[in-house]
């Protein structure tokens, strides 16, 4: 409630508190002298970015060949507390509830997930806890990931699906990226089929290309200055590799 969202404005006459104005990175910044959370909540003009409370979501209609496919970044979902993910149990419970509620509301037949801890045990417990939260044991299953394929990175991609709607066909395939830099996570491709419809086969690919959070030494063409952010050349190269692979 009253969370800060993109597009919110702060009318001059609604600012409650004292701020320090500073100019950096070619823009003015207001630094509250009190708790930023309290300052923002007392100053927000919610009318500038209204929240849509109910967004219609089409139902899964497998007999008609209509299913819902979704992707979700689980934001460093780790069962262990440390440098990644939740720092303590309270944060983990809050993170888990948000993710599970999102999945429950979307009710996707299949989800491609990003930033899952690189352990099949974490993925298994994720699905078990998700089904318990939804109140439907066995509603979702996960595609086991081959550790020898995804490597030793801290996070991995993952795929979960509803076995009552879809059947997983064959084993997953993996795409590793090397050039110009090996920083995108390994893509995972899984073939599915609607039950009793052999001609309905399709493939889901879970991807997580290199982020803009850190620089790539290979980016020497100035793409970071064109609004693409760090590692734009790497993402473009990996996207082309992905298309050729698929």
TrEMBL record:
Coiled coil: none
Domain of life: Eukaryota
PANTHER family assigned: ENDONUCLEASE/EXONUCLEASE/PHOSPHATASE FAMILY PROTEIN (AFU_ORTHOLOGUE AFUA_3G09210), ENDONUCLEASE_EXONUCLEASE_PHOSPHATASE FAMILY PROTEIN (AFU_ORTHOLOGUE AFUA_3G09210)
Protein known as: Nocturnin
Species this chain originates from: Prorocentrum micans (Red tide dinoflagellate)
């Amino acid at each position: 409630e009253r969370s800060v969202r993109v597009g919110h404005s702060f009318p001059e006459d609604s600012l409650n508190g004292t701020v320090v104005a500073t100019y950096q990175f070619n823009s003015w910044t207001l630094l509250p002298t009190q708790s930023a959370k309290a300052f923002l909540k007392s100053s927000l003009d919610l009318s500038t970015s209204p929240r849509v409370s109910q967004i219609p979501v089409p139902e899964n209609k497998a007999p008609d060949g209509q299913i819902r496919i979704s992707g979700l970044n689980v934001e460093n979902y780790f069962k262990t507390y440390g440098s990644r993910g939740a720092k303590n149990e309270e944060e983990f419970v809050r993170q888990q509830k948000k993710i599970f509620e999102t999945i429950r509301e979307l009710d996707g037949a299949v989800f491609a997930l990003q930033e899952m801890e690189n352990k099949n045990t974490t993925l298994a417990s994720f699905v078990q806890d998700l089904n318990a939260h939804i109140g439907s044991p066995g509603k979702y299953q996960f595609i086991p990931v081959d550790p020898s394929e995804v490597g030793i990175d801290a996070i991995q991609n993952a795929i979960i699906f509803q076995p009552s709607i879809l059947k997983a066909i064959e084993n997953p395939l993996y795409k590793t990226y090397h050039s110009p830099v090996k920083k995108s996570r390994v893509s995972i491709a899984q073939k599915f089929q609607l039950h009793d419809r052999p001609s309905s086969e399709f493939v889901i690919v879970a991807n997580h290309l290199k982020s803009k959070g850190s620089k790539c030494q290979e980016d020497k063409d100035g793409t970071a200055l064109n609004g693409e952010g760090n590692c734009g050349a790497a993402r473009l190269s990996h996207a082309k590799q992905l298309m050729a692979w698929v």
